[in-house]
Design brief:
Elements: E1 4-8, H1 11-21, E2 25-29, E3 35-37, E4 44-45, E5 51-52, E6 54-56, H2 61-73, E7 76-79, H3 85-98, E8 105-107, H4 115-123, H5 130-157, H6 168-184, E9 189-200, E10 206-213, H7 220-230, E11 235-247, H8 255-266, H9 270-282, H10 298-312, H11 350-365, E12 371-382, E13 385-398, H12 412-416, E14 430-442, H13 451-460, H14 469-478, E15 482-487, E16 490-500, E17 503-513, E18 516-522, H15 524-536, H16 538-541, H17 545-558, H18 563-584, E19 592-596, E20 603-609, E21 612-617, E22 630-633, H19 645-650, E23 656-661, E24 664-671, E25 674-679, E26 682-685, H20 697-714, E27 715-718, E28 725-730, E29 733-738, E30 741-744, H21 756-768
Parallel strand pairs: 1-2, 1-7, 7-8
Antiparallel strand pairs: 3-6, 4-5, 9-10, 9-14, 10-13, 11-12, 11-14, 12-13, 14-16, 15-18, 16-17, 19-20, 20-21, 21-22, 23-24, 24-25, 25-26, 27-28, 28-29, 29-30
The structure holds one DNA strand.
Amino acid sequence: MVENLVIVESPAKAKTIEKFLGKDFMVKSSFGHIRDLTKKEFGVDVKNNFEPDYIVSDDKKAVVKELKSLAKDAKTVWLASDEDREGEAIAWHLAEVLDINDEKVKRIVFHEITKNAILKAIESPRPINKNLVDAQQARRVLDRLVGFEVSPVLWKKVKPQLSAGRVQSVAVRLIVEREREINNFKPASSFRVNGIFKIVDKSGKETELKAELSKRFSNKADAEAFLQRSLKAEYAVENIVTKPAKRSPAPPFTTSTLQQEASRKLGYSVSQTMSVAQRLYEAGKITYMRTDSVNLSSLAINTSKAKITELYGEAYSKTRQFKTSSKGAQEAHEAIRPTYIDKETVTGTKQEQRLYDLIWKRTVASQMSDARLEKTTITIGISKTDEKYVASGEVIKFDGFLKVYTESTDDEEEKKNGQTILPPLEIGRQLDCIEVLAAQRFTLRPPRYTEASLVKKLEEQGIGRPSTYAPIITTIQNRGYVVKSDRPGEERKFVTLVLKNDNIKEETKTETFGQEKSKLFPTDIGMVVTDFLMKSFKSIMDYNFTAKVEEEFDEIAEGDLVWNEMIGDFYKPFHNLVEESLQHSEKANGERVLGSDPETGKQVSVKIGRYGPLVQLGETTDGENGEKPKFASLQPGQSIETITLDEALSLFRLPREVGEYEGKKVTVSIGRFGPYVRHDNKFISLSKTDDPFSVGIDRAVELIEAKREKDRKAVIKVFDEDNDLRVLNGRWGPYVSYKKKNYKIPKSTKPEELSFDDCMKLIKAADENPKKGRRKKQ
DNA sequence: CAGTGAGCGAGCTTCCGCTTGACTT
């Protein structure tokens, strides 16, 4: 029997705290929430003051049972869940479920896992804050009402299995609207002019100085006129301005900033970052990784100071406490930092080491001095015209925190503007101009979201929580609203004018732009659902909806508002929208008429069908004449919103019969797995460079023969005893194939030397004890 | 592995936030 039972949310936290507390304390974990609204029913009694119907989740039954029996025997039960809305609710649910005497229960809180903080917390217990619990109940009930009332409207009006929610629908809206901004974007061009000057220093060494003209020209004629004016011009330094500047370090990591930096610097996906961080946390190497706080414990600040002084000297140390600026932050934890800041590196996988390194640097840099810079601007005058060239540069006078860490940005343009060191010059110096280059530049369309930049945007709007950023991104992809994908760049021509050796030369060059890697694209269904929700549930889709209800949750937490009343005020108009939409909304399928087929005059349209987006030739009403419309699926990368009539029509040109080979038809088409050639009931994939619309019989035969050759090579051995048994060479090396199942060959044996009996032994052994993780999902 | 798009009806789907494993590749 234990005197004191302490319950926290996370088992790793329990382990740490137990060490601080000594023998009389047993520390256990609830593994997060233990109860939730029932899923089988609606879970909220809307006719009875929105009474919630809570049940212990299936996967928590064992935990609850254990905690219950421990609590029964303990003298005091300390509920030590986090000090935020959700944590307070967890404490309350525990108190309700554990079924123990109120006097035995004490609620304690701490914001950092240090011995001092824990001992202090034990000294000052408090009752459960019911107002805060009510704020959580309001949050939970509101999310259930929105999710479980709006989703069924989508099932009826758009497609079964779809979902809508306070957070996910707005996340999808962001991506849809960005995509439309990009589709509607019309790039404008202007001419940017750079002069390259020759500088000779005292020792006779030559360097080049690049300076940009302070003016851009909106068209080629103006740029050309400027170059004409510049012919035989003379150049001189008109002014040099030097200004001191400073740069300060970024605050320590929160979940969102860690996800952003790990994405930019290490290329990790949001969920990858979280699982690597989880492992570091469980190994006791970093503090809790789901946090919205930039706060550091005084212990952490002091150890950083000592470490920085030791490594870089006192001048580099500057202790700082940061304040959070993000909307809706609840700051139940510390910032994400190394548990022991004096440890510069850790053992573990490469991934863990790299993430730890990032966290260490960010934390330490946050406690370092500002960097001091000197910014210099040189203005160069032109003898024959009023425009000026400007060159700017930056010199680091004292590196401060930059010695350790610099935060990255999402802005690609910013990266190019790297700091340059300017050569020493003085006012009045004459400069030789090597060349003047005027190049046509285009305005940039808005960037598509990456996982991490979406998280950043959501956090700015106060939507979602540290524990949900990664799941949100998974959800909107699983629902088919959004896909993460790459897109090849497009080519575009641009004009350059070069003035060199008193001669102006025009040239047209090509550049690629708009290349995308791992970006979030909305699907057709994502766009149709967003449009539907915007029409019927505008208030829920409002970017400020979460912020608005959060204010009310805060009032509930303060005791100034009663939660059921707040929900009641929300529900009445909301439920009316639901009813209204169910009764009056048209079915939404995103149908768009593209025009008519020049050959038949029939209408060509696109819409979302049962199996996805399709193009339709002819109308269903034509059926009266006995003619059914023709259908074809859209290809990956095509969208019902942007597809053109020509693109749509060409989808009907497949499958194409390209000829005959060995007396059998050869056809080309596009299937689920891409373009293919079909011959004698065999399918052969086209290569990336083949165009399914133009591939001819010669190329098709070439592919068929190549495939046959490959298949021949793939067979290492066949057996007379049993035709089903073969030794094959596959993508991952040789293997044994028998009755459609594949078997690994031990590394020690040579595949050519396997006998029939050897193979059968292998098969028997593998079938008899299937290894864990090799079984197929049912 | 390489389709599908008629209509009906039964039975199912769905939210957000707090936590880890247990899965499979």
